[in-house]
């Protein structure tokens, strides 16, 4: 099967995400399944409203509690009206790690658009905006705790991307691990 062509910058994001994935991985809102290029087929499950192998909403994942070692929410929270509900549902099916990526409000792209008087929001379907502080706050009560956050890569429209971490990177990455002792609080399917 031919894989859809993805931009270099998207492949960098998927490669970074894959480096943090452990064990069985669920890719929520998987879209074109770019992450599957970096995780072996036997460890990867993708789900999406429209195009995933498993069709479902981020609010209602059709999996048992603690089914996956890693749950990835890549470029999805900014599209949702109830991101905390999606985080709680992702936490329910997650045993160890959650990886979240969202657009970085302080990226060079957004800052340059602001300076030029252009609309800062590039994607019309983005309804919310996040930073590492409010994602960490939303994770409270889900049984997950942020262990790392960083922005990557440097990008300015019309110039080549630079694959380095920077406060002004294009995406914000948040890595969260299950808080010790919270497994018993997850409601098990019965």
Explain the layout of strands and helices:
Layout: H1 8-20, E1 25-28, E2 44-48, E3 54-55, E4 68-74, H2 83-92, E5 94-103, H3 108-115, H4 132-139, E6 144-152, E7 171-178
Structure notes:
By secondary structure, the protein is an alpha/beta fold. It has one domain (8-180): Rossmann fold (3-Layer(aba) Sandwich). 21% of the residues lie in helices and 24% in strands. It has helices at 8-20, 83-92, 108-115, 132-139, and strands spanning 25-28, 44-48, 54-55, 68-74, 94-103, 144-152, 171-178. The protein has a seven-stranded mixed sheet, with helices on both faces. Strand 4 (68-74), helix 2 and strand 5 form a beta-alpha-beta unit. The radius of gyration is 16 Å and the shape is globular.
Summary keywords:
single chain; 190 residues; alpha/beta; Rossmann fold; 7-stranded mixed sheet; 7 strands; globular
Radius of gyration: 16 Å
The level-1 CATH class: Alpha Beta
Q: How is the main sheet built?
A: 7 strands, mixed
Helix count? 4
Per CATH, which architecture?
3-Layer(aba) Sandwich
The CATH superfamily is identified as Vaccinia Virus protein VP39
Distance between the termini: 38 Å
In short:
By secondary structure, this protein is an alpha/beta fold.
């Amino acid at each position: 099967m031919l894989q859809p062509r993805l931009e270099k910058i998207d492949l960098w994001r998927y490669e970074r995400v894959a480096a943090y994935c452990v064990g069985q991985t669920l890719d929520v809102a998987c879209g074109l399944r770019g992450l599957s290029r970096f995780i072996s087929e036997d460890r990867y499950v993708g789900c999406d409203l429209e195009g995933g192998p498993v069709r479902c909403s981020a609010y209602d994942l059709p999996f048992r509690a603690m089914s996956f070692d890693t749950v990835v929410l890549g470029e999805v929270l900014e599209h949702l009206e109830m991101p905390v509900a999606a985080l709680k549902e992702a936490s329910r099916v997650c045993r160890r790690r959650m990886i979240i990526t969202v657009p970085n409000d302080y990226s060079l792209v957004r800052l340059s658009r602001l300076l030029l008087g252009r609309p800062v929001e590039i994607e019309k379907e983005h309804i919310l905006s996040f930073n590492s502080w409010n994602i960490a706050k939303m994770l409270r009560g889900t049984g997950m705790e942020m262990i790392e956050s960083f922005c990557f890569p440097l990008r300015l429209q019309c110039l080549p991307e630079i694959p380095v971490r920077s406060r002004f990177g294009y995406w914000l990455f948040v890595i969260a691990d299950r808080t010790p002792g919270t497994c018993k609080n997850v409601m098990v399917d019965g």
